Amino acid sequence: MADIKRLLELCRDKRVYIQTHNFPDPDAIGAAFGLQRLFERYGISSKLCYDGRIDKLSTARMLETLGIEMFSGFELSGELRDSDCIICVDAQKFSGNITDLTGDEIAAIDHHPTYVEVAYQYMDIRQVGACSTIIARYYEDLGIEPGAQEATALLYGVKMDTLNFTRGVTLDDIRAFSFLLPRVDTRVMSQLENNQLEFRDLRAYGAAIENIKVIGFTGFSRIPFSCPNAMIAILSDFILSLVEVEVAVIYCAREDGLKFSVRSERDDVDAGELTHSALEGLGEGGGHSSMAGGLIPVTSIGLLGNDPDEKLRERFVSKIKQLTEKA
Asked: 164, 193, 222 — which closes off a domain?
């Protein structure tokens, strides 16, 4: 287990930026904010940043309700220096979902498997349900009482990434829940958890239902218009809830390419491994055993031929067969 005190020493008297993946979700935001507040206890200032967009009403509401300030890569373009310390949170370099900003990526704190080895000065990669769980453990290990804001952000992140403790939960996540719950602002937590869907989201649900195709125990669905990352993830959970479906592969057409969200509730089908191998040679993908994401850039879509949907289904079905036979 990595010693957070080492990271504190590395960041002392430095310009520090805490960078999430490009489309920060509640877990990424909660973990980054929790780490920022922890640094403040040791006199270390930092800025939270990302290089994509805040693309879901519930995520924007989290930032507003908890008073969290995040900066886009564009906003920081004239400020960042090569000597600045960057800490990757809920992401790792070369994972396909985090931009290489100007600065020195000295650390990675993440709960996703590593696909590309990087020699960070500090690395804490744990197979837990949420990255916020790791940050909560830092508070506990250091004997520091988190304030209501950071406790609420961290617990909300844990709950969202584990689907309210029904997906990928470990004993560490349960321990984080026990540690954080007495310290949260229950009124704010209630505000965050209610009204998470927007009216336009109903169109995406309709498209997912209309286009679903089930092959064996795998449900495929393509959304023919652009959707936020968070919405694609919600739809993959929705398709997985079908009795006939044990693996869900959802993707949508966006201006940057085809964005994927993959879910698995089978022990012999690792969602991260499946996505990484199925998209190999076309794009990038990866994640946990139960949930993963990926992207085929628009420049590679032509490699799928005249019937991209059929070709994608063939690739995923073939990889699923390999995984199940290997198990």
From this structure: 193
- In this structure, the answer to whether residues 29 and 174 fall within a common structural domain is yes
pLDDT the model gives residue 105: 97
Tell me the CA distances in angstroms from 214 to 167, 220, 316, one per residue in order.
22, 6, 12
pLDDT digits (tens, 9 = 90+) for 166-209: 888 999 999 999 999 999 999 999 989 886 667 778 899 999 99
Q: According to the model, what pLDDT value does residue 288 have?
A: 86
CA dihedral sign of residues 162, 160, 279, 207: positive
Scored b (16 or more CB within 10 A) or e, 39-63 reads beeeebebbbbbbbebbbbbbebbb
Are 161 and 17 within one domain?
A: yes
Residues 188 and 245 in one domain: no
Residues of the chain with pLDDT under 50: none
Please spell the DSSP secondary structure of 47-62, one letter per residue. Answer: EEEESS----HHHHHH
Measure the CA–CA gap between 34 and 11, rounded to whole angstroms: 16
> What total number of domains does the chain contain?
2
